Amino acid sequence: MNISVDFTATNVEEGIGYWLRRAQQTVLHDFSETFVPYDLRPAEFSLLMLLANHPGIKQSDAAEILGIQRANFVALVDALQQRGLAERRKPESDRRVQSLFLTRQGTDFVVETSGKWRQHESRMIARLGGIEERDQLVELLTRLAC
Amino acid sequence: MNISVDFTATNVEEGIGYWLRRAQQTVLHDFSETFVPYDLRPAEFSLLMLLANHPGIKQSDAAEILGIQRANFVALVDALQQRGLAERRKPESDRRVQSLFLTRQGTDFVVETSGKWRQHESRMIARLGGIEERDQLVELLTRLAC
DNA sequence: TATTGTTATACTCTATAACTATA
DNA sequence: TATAGTTATAGAGTATAACAATA
């Protein structure tokens, strides 16, 4: 005899997707409040941080890392470029590519704002209960993400 | 002497918000694929399930539970009503309120589709590694959500 | 006065197809 | 032919303000 028990929730309010969304609402809200003075959206800040750590990264590689389609990525780079924070350069080796860099101003901006971001991150860690819980959460989320 | 160590990540790609979003992309993608035959968005399905478990719930209460602003909730209820899956009733006790119910057809629809949703949920649980990991994840997400 | 639902509006995010220039 | 970037566009999701009906 084979008894199988179904542990899936019967209420959407207990489902994984529901809580993912509710948690993200909180995190996004805190991020937005933190960055009000800088008029910066999450994706913009993420890209600036990415360029700080990976100067010269290919535009399409950056888009893939951040999980944004390359078609939607163009306007994102445009915005940072128009604000003088990032720039595109076409390498001689492959003229199809756009290599992305922070400008001097962009580097200063990252220095100025990354502390704010870490404060934001700290508040989220505090909500979770500590570093171990953060690591646990990220580990589990990593399993979900492709 | 007071040594304090900063455990916050220095890369956005290691941050909580980043992984929340990446995980949600996967979950949403799986949900969408699962529900293609029904032309149903996550919020619509969530509301149907909510009405199945809480018949007669006040429109604004349903909106709050699902984390959707009441202004944006109107079109959601409209859509389900126009498909004949849900209906609004004004209770005599308070004529400002809309009480929400599944129609007979809506009830059948939930019966038909909730199995699909549980399969979706099962796939996400499998990705996480099991029920315990799901419970862990939901516990952590609950702490983040307000 | 306060609450509930509603309308209008604007902005962001996401997805798809098609074009261009280069390889 | 294939790849990288781009444009255009449409659909969802979200946030805010203002209004009518009712309490």
In short:
Two copies of one chain form a homodimer. Chain A has helices at residues 16-35, 42-53, 59-66, 70-82, 104-128, 131-144, and strands at residues 57-58, 86-89, 99-102.
Indicate the topology.
2 copies of one chain form a homodimer.
Chain A lengths: L15 H20 L6 H12 L3 E2 H8 L3 H13 L3 E4 L9 E4 L1 H25 L2 H14 L2
Chain A binds a DNA duplex (23 and 23 nucleotides) through α4.
What does this 3D model show about the protein?
- The structure is a homodimer of 146-residue chains.
- Chain A has 146 residues and is mainly alpha-helical.
- Chain A has a single domain (12-140), classed as Winged helix-like DNA-binding domain superfamily/Winged helix DNA-binding domain (Arc Repressor Mutant, subunit A).
- Helices cover 63% and strands 7% of the residues of chain A.
- Chain A contains six helices and three strands, in the order ααβααββαα.
- Chain A has helices at residues 16-35, 42-53, 59-66, 70-82, 104-128, 131-144; strands at residues 57-58, 86-89, 99-102.
- Chain A has a three-stranded antiparallel β-sheet.
- In chain A, helix 2 (42-53) packs across helix 4 and helix 2 crosses helix 5 (104-128).
- Chain A is globular, with a radius of gyration of 19 Å.
- Chains A and B meet through helix 1, helix 2, helix 5 and helix 6 of A and helix 1, helix 2, helix 5 and helix 6 of B.
- The first copy, chain A, binds a DNA duplex (23 and 23 nucleotides) through residues 41, 43, 58-60, 68-74, 94-98.
Report the average pLDDT across residues of chain A: 95
Strand ordering within the main sheet of chain A: 1-3-2
Number of strands of chain A: 3
Looking at how many chains there are and whether they match, the oligomeric state comes to homodimer
CATH structural class of chain A: Mainly Alpha
Domains of chain A, number: 1
* CATH topology annotation of chain A: Arc Repressor Mutant, subunit A
Q: What order do the SSEs of chain A take from the amino end to the carboxyl end, as H and E?
A: HHEHHEEHH
Q: What is the CATH-assigned architecture of chain A?
A: Orthogonal Bundle
Helix content of chain A: 55-70%
